[in-house]
Design brief:
It is an enzyme of class 5 (isomerase). Pfam families: NUDIX. The protein is built from 7 helices and 14 strands. The chain is an alpha+beta fold. The strands form 4 sheets. The chain has a 5-stranded mixed β-sheet, with helices on both faces.
Length: 311
């Protein structure tokens, strides 16, 4: 039991308590709360099960969480059975279980949260219609060339595909749930540009991101994994320093319009792979917006009221 903690869910106290076998003190965990507001003194049978704290992190953000009891136990069971997936890189496995994505409905209203692991399982996407908030950064240098990255071979979804500069998720934490001026999504973009590409925060100030629009799409990666995202499209023009993280990124390059068109032709011929979200943006919006980036009229393209449902 030295590496395993007992997690005891007590419905009458409406909180999860992580009890360490190595210490006598109890530590409150803010990840799950009961949906019941009852203060009845009648006892409900306590359910106890062993689980590793490495796979069930306890956040102390102070945010009230509203996951249902059924999701508490289904999520925990999935974590227990799948954490040992030998095909998953250790870094990606840690992120899959530590990161909590923001669940939204098709109007982008926050409805809960779940692990990155569950949010990318096609079985759960299809059976529970799990939809999570995401962002895609389109970063141009002062010559108006677009930065692309090739995702690392160890990525769980869409390994080795070429895509825009950075694609990830705001997490269920206070700083990335801020709705005003889309600050939560901007904060997440700044965080992940550092994590993935080593771009320091001062090179990409949050107020320099222009949120242009939102798309909603679903795309399988393989038989097990996939995406179902409500994706914020963020544009920025900056001269940045990069130190790509090999756990996240296999390669990077800047391209002009013609080079991107050539890359798309190669993708059509099966010579390279592009991420589905990037291809949707390329096919529907990118080249027109690119013109507006160069002309300094990008603000005219902003439409944050529409959620484009793309296939």
């Amino acid at each position: 039991m030295s590496a395993i903690n007992s997690v005891i869910f007590t419905a009458t106290t409406t909180r999860l308590i992580a009890k360490s076998a190595a210490a006598a003190a109890f530590k409150p965990c803010h990840r799950f709360l009961s949906t019941s507001s009852s203060s009845s003194s009648s006892l409900i049978k306590t359910t106890s099960f062993p689980i590793s704290t490495a796979t069930i992190p306890c956040y102390s953000s102070g945010i009230g969480l509203n996951r249902s009891l059924s999701r508490v136990f289904s999520s925990s069971s999935a974590t227990m059975s799948d954490v040992s997936d030998s095909s998953m890189d250790a870094v990606q496995r840690r992120l899959m279980f530590e990161d909590e994505c923001i669940l939204v409905d098709e109007n982008d209203n926050v409805v809960g949260h779940d692990s990155k692991y569950n949010c990318h399982l096609m079985e759960k996407i299809e059976s529970e219609n799990l939809l999570h908030r995401a962002f895609s950064v389109f970063l141009f240098n002062p010559k108006y060339e677009l930065l692309l990255q090739q995702r690392s071979a160890t990525k769980v979804t869409f390994p080795l595909v070429w895509t825009n500069a950075c694609c990830s998720h705001p997490l269920y934490r206070e700083s990335e749930l801020i709705e005003e001026n889309y600050l939560g999504v901007r904060n997440a973009a700044q965080r992940k540009l550092l994590d993935e590409l080593g771009i320091p925060a001062e090179d990409v100030p949050v107020d320099e991101f222009t949120p242009l629009g939102r798309i909603l799409y679903k795309a399988p990666s393989d038989g097990k994994w996939g995406e179902h995202e409500l994706d914020y499209l963020l544009f920025i023009v900056r001269d940045v320093k990069m130190h790509p993280n090999p756990d996240e990124v296999a390669d990077v390059k800047y391209v002009n319009r013609e080079e991107l068109k050539d890359l798309v032709k190669k993708a059509d011929a099966g010579e390279v792979k592009l991420s589905p979200w990037f291809r949707l943006v390329v096919d529907n919006f990118l080249f027109k917006w690119w013109d507006q980036v160069e002309q300094g009229t990008l603000h005219e393209a902003v439409d944050m009221k529409t959620i484009h449902k793309l296939t």
